[in-house]
Specification:
This protein has three domains: 118 residues, Probable tRNA modification gtpase trme, domain 1 (Gyrase A, domain 2); 124 residues, tRNA modification GTPase MnmE domain 2 (Four Helix Bundle (Hemerythrin (Met), subunit A)), CATH 1.20.120.430; 156 residues, P-loop containing nucleotide triphosphate hydrolases (Rossmann fold, 3-Layer(aba) Sandwich). With 451 residues, it is α/β, with parallel strands linked by helices. It has 15 helices and 13 strands. Helix 7 packs antiparallel against helix 13.
């Protein structure tokens, strides 16, 4: 924490601008050594200064240098950001010069880690920064910004405050029984207060369980025998010719993937090789891949031909996917029906044809219905998004359930306060009021290098 770190904060590629970020007590002095322009030690904070980066009097690039002095910075340390021309060679050369003049290359996520350790943000806000960087949809961006702004952390802090007030009252009851203004915490009062806390935790958990879908999207696999229209359905959903479509059976030999947005949710859809018995070695590999994907997706779309009777291959696919979350699409409904649908009782069945996208909207509506993604309350996107935080909240609920049993058994309040203190500590772990160095190191290694 005493050294000065540097990293490239923009993608390493050809572009108009690249940004190199420096943070630490010596950041202004180090950059000033290689900057030809104003004396950066004398300029005001939060100013942008024009000049050149030099190396032994040779001009490397024309730049704009932003000076941000502690403590009003992201890391609460002095920060310098060099805006140079984009390009791999120029950006790397400036980074090399800074490393040669006293900077250390930042570890992944080290800027955000310093922001946390210096009290600028808490752990939930830090995790939300990463979510914001990885946001693929407008909905996930809104969720992440709520975390960055501290709205989620405030919910946890309010729960901790409720618990600390109970603990303080219990301590007063024990140590100062003569103090008449203090509320006597009986088991009945404790039960009432814990019911409220448990209810609030469960509300957060209920919302947070859905964040996997919001963050990671929904993975859908399209299955069926060859030439039933799987690739055509994929192309129609993606609104592009992603997969090759021909009348020749077995055209798709490998999985083809694409992504589209549905009600703000990222949908990753996979067109699989037609499942059938085959002697073709390459096609056989594709068929085996398709069967493995059945267990990896969140939703299965089984495509059947409207103008053909169910074949043994169809029946095998229906059998393999019968206990899965699935939709049956009866394709080519513009042709005479020969398919016997008695095998499809109590199924989510949609008829379609891909010549005019008939049934496509019904398919989308069914996906929305199955995953309940049509009623997302955008006014209340204060969800926990990390598995770590959700797991800790569930642990709190388990302890409250144990306290409920203790109350039923008339265990004294002063014994129950140990479990209450445990809940308070666990909630502290969520926002980083208490943490281990190992946890912090592991968490921030998931960040990109310049963040």
């Amino acid at each position: 924490m005493n050294d000065t770190i540097v990293a490239i904060s923009t993608p390493i590629s050809v572009g108009a601008i690249s940004i190199i970020r420096v943070s630490g007590d010596d950041s202004i002095n180090i950059v000033n050594k290689v900057f030809k322009g104003k004396d950066l030690n004398t300029v005001n904070s939060h100013t942008i200064n024009y000049g050149h980066i030099i190396d032994k009097d040779k001009i490397i690039d024309e730049v704009l240098v932003s000076i941000m002095k502690a403590p009003k910075t992201f890391t609460k340390e002095d920060i310098v950001e060099i805006n140079c021309h984009g390009g791999i060679a120029t950006t790397n050369k400036i980074l090399e010069i800074l490393l040669n003049n006293g900077c250390r290359l930042a570890e992944p996520g080290e800027f955000t880690k310093r922001a946390f350790l210096n009290g600028r943000i808490d752990l939930v806000e830090a995790e939300s920064v990463m979510d914001l960087i990885n946001s693929k949809t407008e909905l996930t961006r809104k969720m992440a910004i709520n975390g960055v702004e501290g709205k989620i952390s405030n919910l946890i802090k309010e729960l901790r405050q409720s618990i600390i007030e109970i603990l303080a009252n219990i301590e007063v009851n024990i140590d100062y029984p003569e103090y008449e203004d203090a509320i006597i915490i009986t088991n009945n009062i404790l039960e009432e207060k814990l019911t409220y806390i448990k209810s609030e935790i469960n509300k957060i958990l209920e919302k947070s369980e859905n964040t996997k879908i919001y963050k990671d999207g929904i993975k859908i696999g399209i299955f069926g025998k060859p030439n039933v229209g799987k690739s055509s359905i994929l192309n129609a959903l993606l609104e592009e010719d992603k997969a090759i479509v021909t009348d020749i059976e077995g055209t798709t030999r490998d999985v083809v993937e694409g992504t589209f947005i549905l009600n703000g949710i990222s949908i990753n859809i996979i067109d699989t090789a037609g499942i059938r018995k085959t002697d073709d070695i390459v096609e056989k590999i594709g068929v085996e891949k398709s069967k493995k994907i059945i267990d990896e997706v969140d939703l299965i779309i089984v495509v059947l031909n409207n103008n053909e009777e169910l074949s043994n291959d169809d029946k095998e696919i229906l059998e393999q996917t019968k206990n899965k979350n699935r939709i049956i699409v009866i394709n080519k409904n513009d042709l005479e029906r020969k398919l016997d649908i008695k095998y499809l009782k109590d199924e989510n069945v949609i008829t379609s044809n891909t010549l005019n996208d008939n049934g496509l909207n019904e398919l989308k509506d069914k996906i929305i219905e199955l995953f309940n993604i049509g009623n997302i309350e955008e006014k209340d996107l204060t969800y926990l998004s990390s598995a770590r935080s959700i797991s800790l909240l569930k642990k709190c609920v388990e302890i409250i359930n144990e306290i409920d049993i203790s109350i039923l058994n008339d265990i004294p309040v002063d014994m129950i306060q140990i479990d209450l203190k445990n809940i308070w500590d666990i909630l502290g772990e969520i926002i980083g009021e208490s943490y281990s160095d190992e946890l912090i190191d592991q968490l921030f290694t998931q960040f990109c290098l310049g963040k």
